[in-house]
Amino acid sequence: MKFFIFFLSVASIYAQNSSSIINSAVEKDKDKFVAIFKDLHQNPELGFNETRTAGIVAKELKAYGYEVTEGIAKTGVAGVLKNGEGPIVMYRADMDANAVEELTDLPYKSTTIAKLDDGSETPVAHACGHDSHTTWLLSTAKFLAEHKDSWKGTVVFIAQPAEELILGAQAMVKDGLYTKYDIPKPDYLFGIHALPFPVGVLAAASGVRMAGTDQLDVTFYGVGGHGSNPQLTKDPILMAASAIMQYQAIVSRAIDPKNSAVLTVGAIEAGKDNNVIPEKALLKINLRWFNEKDRNLMIEGIKRINESIAHAYGLPEDKMPTMTFKGWSYPLENEPEITAVVREALYPLVENEKMVLDESVLPSVMGSEDLHHLVIENEKKDCVFINVGIAEPKRFAEAMKKGQLPFANHNGNFEIDLSAIPYGSKVAITAMLAIFNKN
């Protein structure tokens, strides 16, 4: 019993010392990383175009002493640091921004306008927190490089492109992340996402946390003509409109009501003039699901509806609607054991243990991620993906009085309170040390 008490005392002292070292290091570098965050926020880049962001990441990692590989899947960056015998732990942060206009009044707000592949232009903003994710990664990388006595093993930092497209993780692997570039395959994969909850609230829940997703385009083809002579045309806009309404019956009538699934048409593109019926109409569709059966029901249902509408309009086989699949991911699942290790390590960072949300209070969400596709084909797949509150607490409290959140992800009002930058760094460093030292 005396030995057990002595062991607990030593562990407690070690934890306190570790926390003190982390706090001192983060506070020392706070201004540096707040400045990096502001710079990233003010200069957002869309998926696979994160050249400036990737350059900043690579420059910083090299300065910390990492072996850096650039240009993976065009803009992806990997930084590797070996520190003796131990586990290989990969920490991934996504770099891309959203095609959203920023509506905040921040002095470092984004005014970026990007040109798309089709020649059109769009405002761009970090409306999902990837600027903070990248900053937390860099802060953690600096700490681990400067405090090698606090961990043993190999750390791999991944700055990933195109998470919003649900393409970046798979693209990095397909481009040879583990083969051509010889990046070590991890024993554990770690990541963080900003959460529109107050700073000081964390989420580290095990099990299935996020839905699977598919991004697909459906194109209806018709016969164009003058708007005054619809009888001489076959209107693809009308076909698309009919399809949109029928799609919703797939979820409401084909999916088991006890399951969760979402089918969203996020964009319709057709025609340019008031008096011209176009040749085609494009629908951009997003699916969310938790099992393959429901996924297949939605995909097959969409296909049948498309073809039935085209046949009803008397279209020939060469004008049948087409489906183009783009980004996708399986549901994200946190491995229970390693998630519990991280969650236990985070308790000292909150005022009350109830502020570390677990699966008993935080249900899975319909949002999706592709982080786990970095390891989904590997022998070892243990993943832990946590959330950090980033909203100013008083603002969050005022919003909750009205029964709402202060802002939502992918909204122009999305705003990360600057206190979340050092706090998130402490969370990330603490979690990574817990994973390295779990045994």
TrEMBL record:
Cofactor: Mn(2+)
Domain Peptidase M20 dimerisation: 215-305
The EC number(s) this enzyme carries: 3.5.1.47
Residues binding Mn(2+): 128, 130, 164, 193, 410
A GO term, aspect molecular function: N-acetyldiaminopimelate deacetylase activity
Pfam families noted in UniProt: M20_dimer (PF07687), Peptidase_M20 (PF01546)
Comment on bound cofactor: The Mn(2+) ion enhances activity.
InterPro entries: Amidohydrolase (IPR017439), Bact_exopeptidase_dim_dom (IPR036264), Peptidase_M20 (IPR002933), Peptidase_M20_dimer (IPR011650)
Keywords, alphabetical: Hydrolase, Manganese, Metal-binding
NCBIfam families: amidohydrolases (TIGR01891)
Protein name stated in the entry: N-acetyl-L,L-diaminopimelate deacetylase
Organism of origin: Jejuia pallidilutea
